[in-house]
Every structure is written in structure tokens, then in C-alpha cells.
Amino acid sequence: MADLNLMKAGIIACGSTNTKNQNALIAESLTFINQAAAGLNPRDWLEIAMLRALMFGLACSLFCLAAQAEGPVKTDEPYARLPLQFGLCDGPSWTGKSLFIPDVKAGILYDYDPVSGMLTKITENVRISGTCYRHGRLYASDNGNARISLLDGHDLTTLAVVDTAEKPVNKPNDLVVDAQGGVYVTLTKPNQVVYVTREGKVSVAVDGLPTPNGLTLSPDEKTLYVASYLPKEIWAYDVTAPGQTANGRKFAFMDDGKDPGADGMTIDADGNVYCAGAKAVWIWNPKGELLGKIETPARPINCKFGDADLKTLYITCFDGLYRQRMTVSGLAPGRDH
């Protein structure tokens, strides 16, 4: 019984040490049990069975904790800056083969092929702040013309104009497209998120949120996440119908100083939420618990998943385009939020 009590103490110790030591103690305890089982009194078999069950449960818990500790970022492959030149690259989107990248400062829309490394100019003299590829086409937040546009070959066509004034004030910032082909668009100055139907009709989906910027939809499209730039908050809204939301609540807050920066957003297949902050890309799980950050040498602007396995996070920053390998994947091509 002394040996059994010793094993019990070892199991209790597992709960108060680090994962590496816990795994070692469990392995040693299991080895001891198997070696000593033949010499134990019959009355001890029930207690041995109970100990085995306890250690099996603890091992399962440790496996889950280890998976959580790994996090969504592939830490053994650090981010890398791609050798591409931009004035100021903004909201990208993945097509399944390549990455659309708008250069909002140079007024150019590019297409980047990660296999060949080629950067191709698609159209110019445009001020696009965000893109979203879905339903086999590219939707663009045509900030310079206060409209939501569709890419047709090398030209942009109008889906909807969000401000018809001669000198428009309400210019679109970022956008995300839903399964119906409708577009949620942030209008930063009037503190609104509007919804544009596939026919081009515009309605207000969210009103009164300070400086809305990036946005994304949950994988099941039941939740709309919106970044509030100046207060550095992420808000979540229930989507009750296309273009209609309810139950707005604060989902997360960036507590990293005074610099503003709740900017572009994306989501992965597990529903984890990503947002570019003042100094890093922040990652939360669907419960709003912080999973980690991807620190960048320059201020990040936006991010999207890409590559053949959808396990590369492309991050646009003030000094160019970065890529970070991940342990989780983004949504399938055509579902790029």
C-alpha cells in the first residue's frame, strides 16, 4: 500500500507542475504499475484499476492542453517579408491560386502568384482599400469612387455607390461577402456598417459603432465581427437575416497602449478571429479568449489566409507584405472572409 500511496502522490503532483514534467510522471507511474502488477495482492487490483483510469483521464487532459498551448501560429516557422514593392498594400484576398493585393497609395490592384513569385498589375488609377473574393469574382471597396465594385477582366464595374455627393464623404473602408452575394461594408466616418444586396440595394446593418474598420463573418455566417478602430474594440453581432443584425456586444479589446489600430480582420476554419492592431495581429477564439499575437516589425493593416493548404496568413503592413505559416487553415477558396 505504501507504493500505491506513492503513486497517488505522484499523480497529485502532476496537477501542480508543468506539462513536460507531468508527461514524465505519468509515464513513470504507468511503467511502475505494469512492473508491480504481478506482485500485488488481489485486494489491490481495484485500486490499481482506479489509478489507471485517473492517469488515463489526466493524460487525455494534458493532450488537449498541449494542443491548445501550441496555438494557431506555427512558431517553428517565423514570418517572412516578401521581396515585393508597394506604396501601401491593404486588404488582400485569396482566389484559390493567387492573392489579390490592392496598393491604396499607388492606386494599383495587383495579383500575386506565390508559386512563381510573380506580381502582376491588374488595373491602376484606383484607390481600393479592401477586397473579398467569393462566388467566383472579386469584390472591391473602391474607396476613391465611394462605391463597391466588381472586377470584370481588368476593369471595375459598379455594384453600388454608397455616397452620391459630388465630393463624397461616406467612403467604403473594408468589406466581406456572404453566401447570398450580399456585401457588408464599413463606412468609418458615419459610424455605420451597410449591407449591399447582389442587386445593389444599400441598407444599414449596424449603426452607431465608433470608427468601424475591418470586419469578418463567422464560418457559419451567424455572427458578424466588426473592428472599432479608435477605441480598439472588436464587436460581435448576431446575423438574424442577410443585412440584419441584433445583440451587438463587445467581443474583445486591444489593451496594448494608446496607439489606435483595430484594423483589417479575417477568420479561420475553427472560427478564431484575427484583427490587425497597432503592433501585431491579434487572435481570439470564438469565446473572445486571446490565443496569441503575431508581432510585426511595421504596423499591420490587414490579413488573409492563402496558399494551397490555406495555412499561410498573409499580412499587409506599412512596409510591405509578410507571410506566416499557421497550424490552422483558413476557409476554403470562395469563402475567404
UniProtKB/TrEMBL annotation:
Give start-end of the signal peptide.
Answer: none
Q: Which GO terms describe its molecular function?
A: hydrolase activity
What keywords does the record list, in alphabetical order?
Hydrolase
Stretches assigned to the SMP-30/Gluconolactonase/LRE-like region domain: 90-317
Please give the InterPro entries that the UniProt record associates with this protein.
6-blade_b-propeller_TolB-like (IPR011042), SGL (IPR013658), SMP-30/CGR1_Lactonase (IPR051262)
Domain of life of the native organism: Bacteria
User: Know the name of this protein?
Assistant: Gluconolactonase
Source organism (scientific name) = Planctomicrobium piriforme
